[in-house]
Amino acid sequence: MGAQEFTHPASGKTAKEAFKNAVEDAAWECGHGGYTGTIAEKGDFVMCSSKVFDSKNEAYDFANKLLDDCDPRVDDKWGPAGCVAFKNKDDTMYLFFGWASS
């Protein structure tokens, strides 16, 4: 079994609610059979920055840097997803990212 890198933006009143929404969305899109290489394989997440990024692009840049640097918080297909918050119009959204079993 391999691993696939993923990024998944999601909305919610809190990061926990956004994570639940992201997992449900990915499971609906990719199935419930396991090894989808998506956030559907994740049971938890870790906040990787207390900063709320000003844009989606800044959040993606930060997430990609952590993935490229093999940051131990997000470098395990069996570990938690990483999460950062970013501004989207008047709301805060969350970007989940990491490695998932595929």
Report on the architecture of this protein.
- With 102 residues, the chain is of the alpha+beta class.
- The protein has one domain (3-101).
- 28% of the residues lie in helices and 36% in strands.
- It is built from two helices and four strands; from the N terminus they run βαβαββ.
- Strands 1-4-3-2 form a four-stranded mixed sheet, sandwiched between helices.
- The chain is globular, with a radius of gyration of 13 Å.
- It starts with a strand and ends with a strand.
- The model has no long low-confidence stretch (mean pLDDT 94).
Roughly what percent helix?
25-40%
Rg, alpha carbons: 13 Å
Figure out the total of helices.
2
Which consecutive residue ranges, at least 5 long each, have pLDDT under 50?
Answer: none
Work out the number of β strands: 4
**What's the shape?**
globular
Q: Report how far the terminal alpha carbons are from each other.
A: 6 Å
Q: Largest sheet, order of strands side by side?
A: 1-4-3-2
Determine the strand fraction and express it as a percent band: 35-45%
* Overall pLDDT score: 94
Task: Characterize the quaternary organization of these chains.
Answer: single chain
Largest sheet: 4 strands, mixed
Q: Structural class, please?
A: alpha+beta
SSE succession? EHEHEE
Integer tally of domains? 1
